[in-house]
# Entry
Amino acid sequence: MLTVVLFFLFFSLFLYVLLAGADFGAGIIELFSSRKNQELTKKTIYRVMGPIWEANHIWIIILIVILWIAFPAYYNIFVVYLHIPITLMLLGITMRGVAFIFRHYDAIKGKSQNWYNHLFKLGSFFSPLFLGMIFGGLVGGSINLYEENSSLGFKEIYVDSWFNPFSILIGLFYVALCSFIAANFLIGEAGEEDEKNAYKKKASYTTIILVLLGLVIILYGYFNDIAFVADFIENKISIIGIIISALVLIPLWIMIKKREKRWSRILAAVQVFLIVAAAMLAHFPHIIITSTNEISILNDVASDSVINSLGIALIIGGFLILPGLYHLMQSFQLIKLFKEKK
Amino acid sequence: MENLEAARLQMALTLIFHIVFACIGMVMPFFMVISHFKWLKTRKKIYLELTKAWQRGVAIFFVTGAVSGTALSFELGLLWPEFMKHAGPIIGMPFSLEGAAFFVEAIALGFYLYGWKKLPEKFHWFTGVIIGISGVASGILVVAANGWMNSPSGFDYENGVFSNIQPMEAMLNEAWFTQALHMTLAAFVATGFAVAGIHAFQIYKGKRKELHQKAFNISISIAAVAAILQPISGDISAKDIAERQPAKLAALEAHYETEKGAPLYIGGIVDEEHQEVNYKIEIPKALSFLAFGDFDAEVKGLNDFPKDEQPPVAIVHYAFQLMVALGTLLALAGVLYFLSLKFRNWQNSKKYWLFFVLLAPLGFVALEAGWIVTEVGRQPWIIYNVMKTKDAVTPMPGIFYSLLMYVGIYLLLTFVVSWLMWRQIRVLNQTKEEC
# Structure
């Protein structure tokens, strides 16, 4: 049953990174677009993402609930030492979430729209930035456990863990990844030719930034002895995953040129999957690296009775939710991943 | 401000805020589908208009509730890491099921909001029903987790170690049913009176009477039934607390000394220092009867509990009095509404509408007061008789600043959402009557 629970944990993580990522990314693209394109993007996001918008963001709740039920000791370190970036991420998610819905449902479309737009765009940028920084904090080797370091102050224990160059780089990497997902996603939805070209440009910029940031992270980690990066390079599965994901860029570009909406989306999703899998497997099960130690997610797992009942609940929940979600996507043809282009 | 106090205030603030949004998101879909049903049946455009107006409300409240709920799911751990470390696995069952129910709700909402003219009519309507049902299910499951904090079960506890965990037993703890019943009814009462009050105000001002009258009827009839049932549920809850949490009962009744044939205090000012309640109305033996169904039953007083295990008395007592008073008032208002169906001319009086306008916020005031009773009344425990709140709080100092941030955000959101609702109604009133 532990395998089932772990499967759902990573499954939710992947879907959150992908689906919420596409949503964050749409906001980031809006942030870096000209005024005219902003309007277009805004309409497209709403049309395409609207119906599954709420569902996209529930994956993080599932993720966090699985963490606290099944891996309480791991969860404890996560919430104590990364309290500040988690709070900041929540702030971002809240602000952009309400702004998204307010700007659509405000009965009077007036000046207030500007406020919603700003909130949405900024929130879309900062939420994934902090999310990435949280992951960077977990594996960056900068967490100082207070039991071991009673002499250290607030900054060393609660700030240094996540506010460091490595974490910021990972944060920016996730921001770039979100924009990459969204740009690829939006190309397929764009109606007119110049619209398409605009997104194509965005897609190529984000790809370049993504690859560059990836290289910078590896170089930075390598020269600063960051254990995660060193192990990442040495771990065969991770490195193969990353190489494949780089190679996938080639067919992805061909598909985008050919306007194969379905395949370009599948390939973009595959790419995200490979990146997430590589990052998770590089150090599994030690997904917390402190300044002195590595902490396994499998340490102090909840008792068998808990894991079994959680596994059953997840399987039942999965049977309830996944077909519904699939039908929702199909009914509105929003993710045309599953449908041939007419 | 101390870290513990700041953390408790932040938690209280988040919950107070979230509960309002969650309740509205839970109950309004029912009003919406009733109106939608009437549209399908009668094909009167006015019902369609009302359904769509309410749908915008549902969308706004659902999302605001969902994001504050996301924040809450993290805050449990951010503020109370020691609690979650031990309690997380035990009360995981209701939370994971709640996650599933919430997911179903979000999917149904996607179908409903975007399904107009795209889905078959009946299926589209049915997705609205699913929103309501899964919303109520979510609410009940979360309350079950809270019930466990009041009535911990499903584990063995020895020397600070939790073992032999039975998740199902923990979920079906002794408090879940009474709490869930009371809360679900309260959600319907509070939301119903709030919605009815808003529409009553429009009728009072003489705007689009036909539309607002229909909206009023749908919301108030459900609220009235719930309000009339609520005292029965309250009585079940009181007897349950008398049995399980005598310290809470003593605090909410401000009873310091143990006595047989204990009187019921109505009103009064609590003097915690001298352990007295001044200016109260005393009904002899009534508390013993209400708590145990026997006029001579013994009711434990606060002094029977060690000093460091007594909850704060004054706030719990006042909150309880407020809840009961408002609950009674709303139940009477419910009766008044049903009488007004017989005596039609009452509704021609402006005073009638003004009365319901004034009632609009009171259901929520009562509901929040009720949560203060149950949460503050459980103190100093976070898990009753097992773990104290002060032992659960995060080691990270400076929660005060986090509290300030939350106060800022929630004030802003409350303001913006109210303003949005006001704009919705203004636009609704400006639309020309089409029927």
